[in-house]
Amino acid sequence: MYLPKLFKPDKEYRLIRLGKKNDGGYLVGIQTVNASTHLISLGIKDDWSFEKDFLKQNHIDSVCIDSENILDILKKKFRSDIKSSILSLNLIKLIKNILIFLDYLSFKKKTKFIKKKISTGDLNQLISKINSDKIFLKIDIESSEYSILNEIIQNQKKIVGLVIEFHDLDKNMNVIIDFIKKFKLKITHLHANNFSKVDKDENMKIIEMSFEKSPEVIGNDKIFPNDLDMRNWKRGPEIKLNFYE
Question: Which percentage of the chain shows pLDDT scores above 70?
Fold first, then answer.
């Protein structure tokens, strides 16, 4: 995968992995996590593993927002899996899904959930209610991220860290470049999401990026892939990152 050199972290930074294996995990600096006073997470669906690990490291106020009701998703999946598990006598699958459901109920007590499709103005409204300059953002909202990039830039003095998925790179490359130039936090990690199809130039359409205000440097040159990196789709190939001037 070829990206402008602007996307490449300028140093090797100390990072940890928060979230489950493969898709759903992100690399961030533990010092940034510990420095945060609030977590705003946009895009949850049925995976709260990043948020769960984050709040284990730092018990702070958090809000999770998604256009779908997580409980409805789990109930639907739960009912379907119960039926198939009973019919196939697959008790392991049944127990696994019961544990997932119970884990959600436990996590729900630790954060605030809001059912809402994110649109322009929503992030400004959320941040305006928080009296802190140490907010951490996690954004995975399936291309809706482009509707709030200006709001991230407007509020960057209040943001200590950001993990974000950029979708449809082929259509939005110039928008992302403009965002990187205006956003003053350092890029600390970059990973190609291999769930999307490769285009004619062998480029993916989705990348994950981590930004931090005060990351810990451990080396002079970024090494790819990081030992903590995992393929989003475990049966697909890891995508090699290359950069051009």
Answer: 89
